[in-house]
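Working notes for the structural subgroup meeting. M.R. asked for a predicted model of this chain before we commit to crystallization trials. I am recording the input and output together here so anyone reviewing the notebook later can reproduce the run.

Input as submitted:
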Amino acid sequence: MSDAITNLNLDFSTSPTVWKFLKDKSFVRGLMGPVGSGKSYACAAEIMLKAVSQVQSPRDGIKYSRFVVVRNSYPELRTTTIKTWQELFPENIWGPFRWSPPLTHHIKLPPRDGAPGIDCEVIFLALDQPKDVRKLLSMELTGAWVNEARELPKAVIDGLTHRVGRYPTLSDGGAKPWRGIIMDTNPMDDDHWWYRLSEKEKMTGPYAWKFYKQPGAVIEYMKDDLPENPEANGFIYSAKKWWMANPKAENKKNLPTGYYEQTLLGKNIDWIRCYAQGLYTYVQEGKPIISEYDDNIMSQEHLEPDPSVPIQVGVDFGLTPAAIFGQRLSNGRWVVLHELVTFDMGLERFGSMLKTELASRYPKFDVLVWGDPAGQKRDEIYEVTAFDHLRSIGLTARPTATNDFKVRREAGAMPMNRLIDGKPGLLIDSKCKRLRKALSGGYHFKRVQVSGAERFRDQPNKNEHSHVGDAYMYLLLGGGEHRALTRGSNPNFKQATANTDFDIFA
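Returned structure, recorded in token form:
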């Protein structure tokens, strides 16, 4: 074999989890672990390991293979994924990298000393453009590496499953002995598809997807378990807790001394749980839209509706409609009882689902539905507004006084700033996981990539969390907080008119 392969360091024996992952021949394999655990390096190496193990072409004796490396966006692809790849396969040894789209490293090693030649094509693709998704779904591949899989929908992996194993053709030996998909990722929260498939709905049988979880890089210690002078004994205090480096952490030999101990400093608890402990955790991104929310004190189990108070519902329209069910109690406290979040659903189906939820959960309550005033625009085809449709199925539906974002945000934050009978003015049932995640930072202002002080966009980042976040704001805005704003309790309030340039069916 060539000197390039001979000199390649592919010894993962000191990382037991990675070693098991590499030895596994499953069609789909996933590797999850903390930052710095060698996940990406292992997946990059696996591509070459599989290229070397492919059968020879009966035509010319060359081992042909083609892989795609997928990331969620080109900035991450260039600065992280490709950087890792080039550390392992530098151009001066493995041949030039093509930097024009599609980004490709075509590795060709001629036969040498009786060993067959290798023709391995590695295409790097980001899926932040529709055209790139279409390109992916037309590829003929041996295998695929999905880098940081938590950032991509499961539909991408599903699409890849019927693109791999199609190269090389049978005339060149076929994709043997392995074809498939490898994935790596940092941890995610417990409603992600990875968590569901790896922990809750584990596959069985010969073609089951396999998931591997690396040990955490740090261990949390309780105060009572600490020695005297803990810092002198290697313990680190961060996020109001004590930590120690985990002796079972993998890839430490390739990291600077004190890497994890230094990394912990200045980090919040969710960051540490995710990126250092390697636990399933939601990590806040950007700047929360409503920074006043504190999930630790504002979420509560088993909230029950008050039978003397109407149920109010905030609705965000569109093809990802969401509804938040709550009550404004006589003492001024808001309680959020239930959420309804849907995907790829038109108004008719959503309205029917909303009515069913109300009938089953709150059959004897008066109900009032609040929504975006832009929903008063008639659809050009159906000649009906969102509010018209809801009223036609028996729901009392009204537009809020405004859809101005700043006003909505203030309305959503107002009860969080109140203390009523020793408790916050807002309580959310703990089962409303999507709303809690949205308010905890899923619905956020995106960070602007500039040097110097942190800066954020002044408009919210539209994502899967924004719809449920908007529904919450419409609930509070329509349910009474708008009146509090206009009475003068907020001197910065400015009356705004609704923007009706909105298609409820779009």
